[in-house]
Fold this sequence. Notes:
Blueprint: E1 2-7, E2 10-14, E3 18-21, H1 28-32, E4 45-46, E5 49-52, E6 65-66, E7 70-73, E8 77-82, E9 85-93, E10 104-112, E11 115-119, H2 130-136, E12 141-145, H3 155-165, E13 169-173, H4 187-193, E14 196-199, E15 204-206, E16 218-221
Parallel strand pairs: 3-5, 4-6, 5-7, 11-12, 12-13, 13-16, 14-16
Antiparallel strand pairs: 1-2, 1-15, 2-3, 8-9, 9-10, 10-11
Helix pairs in contact: 3-4
Amino acid sequence: MRIRWYGQSAFLLEGPPRVFIDPFGPMPGLAARGRRFDYPPIAGVEADLLLVTHEHRDHNAVDAVGGAPRLIRSLAGSWADTPAGEVVGVASEHDPEAGTLRGHNVMFRFALGGLRVAHLGDLGQAAMRPEQVRALGAIDVLFVPIGGAGLTIDGEAAAEAVRFLGPRLVVPMHFRTPLVDFLDPPGAFLDALGARTASVGASEAGADAHLGTPDDPVVLLLRPPGA
């Protein structure tokens, strides 16, 4: 499975099939508030399956992805007939106040290229609940938000989520980079988890080459596109 990061929480995963998760669109409102969001626009990409974890503009710009993909948008449930086979969406909250501040969030689980994948979207609740951990099941590759700043879980909570789920490979997302200035940098997460880190110096990489074990996972730190 090949992973390409477009910035924030947007990824193209190529098995085949091609799965795109959380595409972002233009964010002029952030600039008006003095915040920087300068990732290059998502363009020229096609997918077979498109997943949206929640309805914020930095996650739901479905028109940015071509190829007439099957779309599962901000819904919890189970779908057996997608181009990637079974997809499970697990309900969660975007904030620690039962979703009353920032709304709901869906964590998606599916398999691709023989690997079990989970993308946690903008998980913001204080801790993973046992029923959510059971619903996600065994995970090989975990995409986890780490940037905190009141928008998602922070580095320490993200490290705890990793320990709960026991993936072999961890891909941090939704954190401060040279192109985004309103989130926390990855250092607190890396320190809290204390796992091996592979900094590949590119915005894409093959997952299979970096797999660890559930007891000794590897953190794949991708370079922000355009940085």
